[in-house]
Structure formats: structure tokens, C-alpha cells
């Protein structure tokens, strides 16, 4: 019978694990910030390139007279300014998407770190709220996007605690 005993080096292994966890704790704001950056990137891409909300819904006006995905009036306005009209992309001047960013990390009362995506400009946040009321949730990640973000987070954690 073949067996391997770890009893002789158990203290060394425990020390390596503790060192990895301490290193992880110090890097946690950076790791969480990267996950939030991933969130922002995948959500912006989905909205701007696919014209889809969080539940996969197409972002299309409710108006009966349309030009592409926009109301006929607003579609003409966009077309005159050289903007595409085939999908609602929440991008006109660019201010809304420029404002959708990773917010500065916040240390909570319990010592945990909160990192989140949101709007750096309150007026753009209000516009986003209106757009979500009209079109449905859009600035939250889809289930598939959550998996991508989680995989990146898991990779970053594993990288730091690998023995």
C-alpha cells in the first residue's frame, strides 16, 4: 500500500496558506476593483454593441412609428447627427456611458471593502434610472456576464493563494 504523509511538513503548509491569505487580504481592494471593471466593460459592450438589457431584451422604443429601434422623431434626429439607429445603445453624447464607472472603494464599518459600479455624475445616474424604467434593467450583468466576472475573480484569488 502506498501512502503519503503530510504530518512532517504540515506547519510549513499551514504557514504558506496563511501567507497566501494575508497577501490576498492586502490585494482584496485591487481584486474587487478589477471585478467591477469587468462588470462595467461587459455591460457597456452589451448595451452599446448588442442593444440588449440585462434580461436579454432588445432595447427598442415603445413608439408605434419607428426609425430602426428609435421613435421616428428621435431616430431622424440621431441619423441627422450621424448616429446609428438600428439598436438603442444609450449613447448619444457619450456622457452616460462615460459616467458609468467603477466607484471609489469604500471601507465599511465592519472593515469590509465595498467596490461597485455606478454613475459618477448624479444627472447621468438619473437618466440611467429613467432608461431602466422605460426599457427594463440594463446596467446589471446578465447571468452569463456574472459567470465571466466570477471566473476572473476566482482566477485572481487562486493566483494569490496558490502554494
Task: Identify the overall geometry.
Answer: elongated
Count of strand segments? 6
Judged by helices, strands and strand pairing, the structural class is mainly alpha
Assembly state (oligomeric): single chain
Helix content: 40-55%
Rg from Cα: 23 Å
Strand order of the largest sheet: 1-2
Helix count equals 5
Spell out the helices and strands N to C.
HEEHHEEEEHH
Span between termini: 27 Å
User: What's the overall average pLDDT, rounded?
Assistant: 88
Biggest sheet, in brief?
Answer: 2 strands, antiparallel
Share of residues in strands: 5-15%
Poorly predicted runs of 5 or more residues: 1-7
Explained architecture:
α1 (10-50) runs antiparallel to α5 (143-161). By secondary structure, the chain is mainly alpha-helical. The protein contains five helices and six strands. It is 54% helix and 9% strand. The protein has a two-stranded antiparallel sheet with strand order 1-2. Strands 3-6 form a two-stranded antiparallel sheet. A two-stranded antiparallel ribbon has the order 4-5. β4 (106-107) and β5 (113-114) form a beta hairpin. Mean pLDDT is 88; it is low at 1-7. The protein has helices spanning 10-50, 72-80, 95-99, 122-135, 143-161; strands spanning 66-67, 70-71, 100-102, 106-107, 113-114, 117-119. The chain has a domain at 27-57 and 93-161.
Amino acid at each position: 500500500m502506498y501512502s503519503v504523509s503530510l504530518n512532517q511538513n504540515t506547519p510549513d503548509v499551514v504557514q504558506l496558506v496563511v501567507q497566501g491569505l494575508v497577501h490576498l487580504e492586502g490585494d482584496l481592494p485591487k481584486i474587487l476593483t478589477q471585478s467591477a471593471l469587468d462588470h462595467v466593460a461587459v455591460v457597456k459592450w452589451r448595451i452599446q454593441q448588442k442593444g440588449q438589457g440585462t434580461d436579454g431584451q432588445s432595447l427598442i422604443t415603445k413608439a408605434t412609428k419607428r426609425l430602426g429601434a428609435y421613435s421616428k422623431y428621435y431616430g431622424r434626429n440621431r441619423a441627422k447627427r450621424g448616429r446609428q439607429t438600428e439598436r438603442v445603445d444609450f449613447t448619444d453624447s457619450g456622457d452616460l456611458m462615460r459616467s458609468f464607472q467603477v466607484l471609489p472603494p469604500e471601507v465599511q464599518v465592519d472593515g469590509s471593502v465595498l467596490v461597485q459600479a455606478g454613475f459618477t455624475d448624479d444627472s447621468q445616474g438619473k437618466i440611467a434610472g429613467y432608461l431602466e424604467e422605460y426599457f427594463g434593467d440594463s446596467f446589471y450583468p446578465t447571468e452569463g456576464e456574472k459567470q465571466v466576472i466570477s471566473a476572473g475573480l476566482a482566477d485572481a484569488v487562486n493566483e494569490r493563494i496558490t502554494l
